[in-house]
Design a protein that fits this description.
The chain is an alpha+beta fold. Helices cover about 30% and strands about 25% of the residues.
Length: about 800
């Protein structure tokens, strides 16, 4: 045992936490002159290396290990970042100097160096101590080629500039091995070395594949798709299984199924829909109740457990619907073919038949395997024309079906009234669609309309989802549910405080507020200017819906039981629900239940993660296309409404849902103070007030598709009642601190456009090996190529 080991061992064994040099010498029996001299030298060495330290009183102690907290690091393009410990709690700010070379999405361990101060409105600040798991093993970017002389000198093909705006300023040096792309190619890089001391903005990697050229049509969206890890092609073995599925059903497929081919059943979808996975029928019964049949394509019959098709669907989790394309969960040969409920051809389905009374309650139901043949392929537009009696030609064309559509509308009203009565929360949110040409260039942005046709299908699908969930919950069989949990108490408290600033009193306790009480708030402000912000703040106060093997209910729908049963072509959880219906129709023994009880947690978690990935990708593409669209309108003026107010400026939303920022620095007529409890900016001198819901006219000054950021300049604003600046309000010094942290409003922009990913698990570095701060040795005893190649490249290029 070395003397260092003896010192540490002795100090750890003692009850005391600190020792004088004499006490340590006595305890170690190193009191002789020569021994004591060695002890002093050893202590000096240990102090330099940090394994021992002196207290303020000159005593020795072992360093106090910091209490490390694990979380997910989110990097801002300006270099600083935030760590999410708990999605429901405030993030911890990490300065640019304290990131420890962490990259966006990394799982990190942090030490809190400044605690939060709620009174001063200051969040906690931390320092990254350890990178436990790298989030990205590859990235997407534009390749910038070196010439041959540079390649020979640096052993590098060139550099890749990442497409992710959070990696602005980083360069990825491409080793001169493997694929050598053409200049301007969009490529996927496999990362071999990450930033570290001396190379803070440098990575190294090898080009894994070439996606295309930056000037190719649609490449901007493709780069986002690939960057989010969404597969764009099906493996050959998956396509082979899909090709092996017959184009038509056979008599053997009908064994054990109820034949409903004589019933009048229709699909109702958007005009451009190709994967028709739900069909409905309605009729009024003699007792005054309604019969509702919801028939869903039996995808599980073709995508079987253990197949390559199933494995691929599990990995994808969902279809992804983007501006100009759909990335399907299962191959289109199935989704648009044998699994699509095309008109007047037999199709295999799973059916949920319900009898619904005048209170909108399901009084009887049946769930079974079936075969149907739809009578007509209806569009929402056609059904709306029929119900509103707008188009005589449409009424004539579908005259045999008109009575059924009218009964559908009547049933929908009963179901909607039932949901309102029990307190389901209905957020009226404008949804826009970006129209593009054949090259992906945005032509216009239009609001999606939701007529009775759209809403009645939604009502019928909700009824089927609830009925199926309640059926299996009552049987106490392992099942997968769509859950939306009660809002967290602290988030409700913040919402209560926010609403009170608008004179809105929320009835109920923050601990167990009912959905009905929150819906009353929405109804109360429906016609007021602040309706949009109240809805937005309430939505942010909610927890995120997810999939779970436990039935936790759906708070937003005020439903005790809920699942996803109606879209197995595009959602994996629905496919699993279908598989479970088929499995449990044959066996419910203990072995079957144990098998699914073990499998469902992983399925639920994967489905939730892939849903978030899909939503993030869709938002990113929408933001890109909206920025491209507004780039054509720089210098033009538009009317809008203030949608959000922050300490760094005003977000303004235009009627087409495009949102831009008026930075506080652009408000040059006064010095503006942020009044948080009113969400208002108020001029110190003029008392000019800007708050949510206020009408404004703006000029577009900048629109950058690369960063997805749109900037506005204020032209004029509606006069509103001034908000008083409280004594002791935000001072200039605090404002400067805020500006340093959130100068561009990037964090808020990012939160609007991208959700938070789940925390990763702890681990070693990206190669699964122990970190080597010196780069280690490569072949022939040389240093890692990262250092030789990057150093050469930086010397040459920079």
């Amino acid at each position: 045992m070395t003397i260092k080991e003896r010192i540490i061992g002795y100090m750890e064994e003692q009850k005391k936490s600190s020792f004088s040099m004499e006490q340590l010498a006595e305890g170690l029996q190193l009191q002789k002159s020569q021994d004591y001299k060695l002890l002093v030298q050893t202590i000096a060495s240990m102090e330099r290396e940090g394994t021992i330290e002196f207290t303020k009183k000159g005593k020795l102690r072992l360093p106090i290990a910091p209490i490390l907290i694990e979380g997910t690091f989110r990097r801002n393009e300006r270099g600083f970042g935030f760590v999410t410990i708990d999605p429901e709690e405030d993030d911890v700010y990490i300065s640019k100097e304290s990131t420890g070379y962490a990259m966006d999405g990394d799982t990190v361990a942090i030490d809190i160096i400044k605690t939060a101060n709620q009174l001063e409105g200051r969040g906690a600040e931390g320092k990254v101590v350890e990178i436990r798991q790298r989030a990205a093993q590859q990235l997407v970017g534009e390749f910038v080629a070196y010439n041959q002389n540079e390649i020979d000198e640096t052993d590098l093909y060139g550099v890749v500039l990442p497409k992710d705006k959070k990696m602005q300023g980083f360069k990825v040096y491409i080793a001169a091995e493997g694929i050598q792309p053409a200049d301007g190619s969009i490529v996927i890089v496999e990362i071999s070395h990450f930033p570290e001391k001396g190379y803070a903005s440098s990575l190294e990697g090898v080009v894994k594949s070439v996606v295309g050229h930056k000037n190719d049509p649609g490449m901007d969206i493709m780069a986002i798709i690939v960057a989010n890890g969404i597969p764009t092609k099906f493996p050959d073995e998956v396509l082979a299984e899909a090709d092996a599925v017959p184009n038509q059903i056979s008599e053997t497929d009908l064994v054990g199924r109820r034949d409903l081919r004589e019933q009048t059943i229709v699909t109702i979808d958007g005009a451009d829909a190709k994967d028709l996975d739900d069909a409905v029928t309605v009729k009024k019964l003699a007792n005054g109740n309604f019969f509702l049949g919801v028939h869903i394509a039996d995808v599980s019959y073709y995508v079987t457990e253990g197949s390559q098709l199933n494995a691929e669907a599990f990995e994808r989790g969902t279809s992804v619907y983007l501006t100009d394309r759909v990335i399907p969960m299962i191959p289109q040969r199935l989704s648009n073919g044998i699994c699509s409920l095309n008109p007047q051809v037999p199709r295999l389905t799973l059916s949920c038949e319900m009898e619904i009374n005048q209170e909108g309650q399901v009084v009887h139901h049946k769930i079974f395997q079936s075969v149907i043949q739809t009578t007509a392929r209806m569009t929402y537009a056609a059904v709306n024309e029929i119900l509103e009696e707008q188009n005589p030609e449409t009424m004539t064309e579908y005259q045999a079906l008109v009575p059924m559509f009218q009964e559908m509308a009547e049933l929908h009203q009963l179901l909607e009234a039932m949901r309102v009565k029990r307190g389901a929360i209905a957020f009226d949110d404008n949804e826009a669609k970006v129209l593009v040409d054949e090259n992906g260039r945005p032509l216009d942005i239009v609001l999606r309309s939701r007529g009775v046709g759209e809403r009645l299908i939604e009502s019928f699908m909700l009824a089927a989802n609830e009925t199926v969930a309640q059926h299996f919950a009552s049987l106490k069989l392992p099942f997968i549910y769509r859950v939306h949990e009660q809002p967290k108490e602290e988030k409700m408290q913040r919402f209560f405080e926010f609403a009170s600033a608008f004179g809105i009193l929320v009835k109920g306790n923050k601990e167990d507020i009912t959905p009905k009480a929150l819906q009353k708030v929405i109804d109360e402000v429906a016609e007021k200017p602040e309706a949009a912000v109240i809805n937005m703040m309430l939505l942010r106060s909610m927890q995120q819906a997810r999939y779970s093997e436990d039935n936790l209910g759906h708070y937003g729908l005020a439903a005790t039981y809920y699942t996803h049963f109606t879209s197995p072509i595009r959602r994996y959880p629905d496919l699993i629900v279908h598989r479970l219906i088929r499995v449990y129709s044959q066996a419910t023994d203990e072995a079957t239940q144990a098998k699914w009880a073990e499998m469902l947690p992983e399925i639920a978690n994967q489905s939730s993660k892939m849903e978030r990935r899909s939503v993030d990708t869709e938002r990113e593409v929408d933001a890109l296309k909206k920025a491209e669209f507004m780039a054509e309108h720089v210098g033009e003026e538009f009317d809008g409404v203030i949608s959000s107010v922050t300490k760094f400026g005003l977000f303004v939303e235009l009627p087409n849902t495009i949102e831009g920022l008026i930075h506080i620095n652009a408000l040059k007529d006064d010095y503006y103070v942020f009044i948080e409890n009113h969400l208002a900016l108020v001029g110190e001198r003029t008392r000019q007030t800007f708050k949510i819901g206020q009408l404004v006219k703006i000029k577009v000054t900048k629109s950058d598709p690369e960063t997805r950021e749109i900037d506005f300049e204020l032209v004029s604003a509606e006069e509103v009642e001034a908000v008083a600046i409280p004594k002791g309000g935000q001072n200039r010094r605090q404002r400067r601190q805020d500006d340093r942290r959130e100068k561009s409003g990037s964090k808020q922009r990012n939160k609007k456009n991208k959700g938070k990913n789940a925390k990763g698990s702890a681990g070693k570095n990206q190669q699964g090996k122990k970190n080597d701060p010196k780069g280690g040795k490569g072949k022939k005893g040389k240093k890692s190529p990262f250092y030789s190649k990057v150093a050469k490249g930086k010397k040459k290029k920079n």
